[in-house]
Amino acid sequence: MHHFNYKNGRLHCEGVDLHEIADTVGTPVYVYSSATLRRHAKVIAGAFDGMDCLIAYSVKANGNLAVLKTLAAEGCGADVVSGGELQKALVAGIPASKIVFSGVGKTREEMALGLREGIHQFNVESGAELEVLSEVATSMGKVAPITLRVNPDVAAGGHPNISTGKAGDKFGVPWDDAPALYERIKTLPGVKAVGVDVHIGSQIGDLGPMRAAFEKTIGLVKSLRAAGHDLTRIDLGGGLGIPYKASDNPAPPSDYAQMIREVTEGLGLQVVLEPGRVIAGNAGVMITEALYHKPAPDRTFLIIDAGMNDLMRPALYQAHHDIVPLSEPSADKPMVEYDVVGPICESTDKFATKRHMPEVEPGARIAFMSSGAYGAVLSSQYNARPLVAEVLVDDAQYAIVRRRPSFDEMIALEQTPDWLS
Questions:
Q1: What is the CATH number of the domain that holds 137?
Q2: By the number of CB atoms within 10 A of the CB, which of 16, 18, 289, 310 ranks highest?
């Protein structure tokens, strides 16, 4: 569910006309709905009501500070994969005790930051990382609470590039290595095993692979407990899918929660979850303006002012986003087939191929739906284009929560050497 609807023929986010935002801020621009963010956070929390459950929102999905503050107010923790994300979560008011640190390439400096702040846990991804974390924690007189992320060799995800639980993926420790690594933890200073972590992918609509991975991981927890490890947590990652188009029918959070209740029942484990897309995805749209029609022998290109530097998902994953006009089309509006493309000098700068949609005239505005996750957070200044602006709506008010930089700001970090002056 989301809060983007037509009112009097104009697309609104909650009580705000999106044309007004485009007039004021310009395009392209991301617009987020506070009501949708809050509702999704409440739905996830409500599904796990009565369980010992830490909902650690995945900051990589959408790390805008205003979004993080909105979710912090709903009681969310944070799953972070860099020192920068950790600091953003803290600035947003998320307590360190609700932050888990994931990622395969933590530096010593990032480890030290997490230890100083007293985060909930480190999700350790390799034996080498384990040894370094032990060294860093010992040098600081700290003990790092850790889970090992295990790779259960279970495939899942809406695209091969977002599947993370197969044997060939870079994530997690090989399944057969896990028992020996937990034994190694016993001998290392500065680290304490508190649980097991597993995460198999993203945009998962079928709970079957998740259940298979979770049951396999629960079996590991039981065997490790039998071997004398005092494990009190299980981190089940994120990955629950959202509907990007009408035909999508991913499992709802209620079914997801019921499956996890069944898998973990009677074990006395705190469940850590890392939802991202399911909270932020449908809470955002990207608004863009049509520039030109460009006829070709077998198609018509609709060229827009947003590029793959603003929304990378179609180029990275061949991802689908519904595209709707900001001005509601009349019933007799002609339907046209377009290749929707941007201005970037790359053939992959394509948002849709042969998309059947109401005719779009140059100057008209359209919205890419379900862009709240992995949208602005992946944007860049490729082709010397400014970072896309972001706006947060709350009922009838809105605010710019990341402004578009000026050219001078874009080049402020660059300098020429003396010999070129």
A1: 3.20.20.10
A2: 310
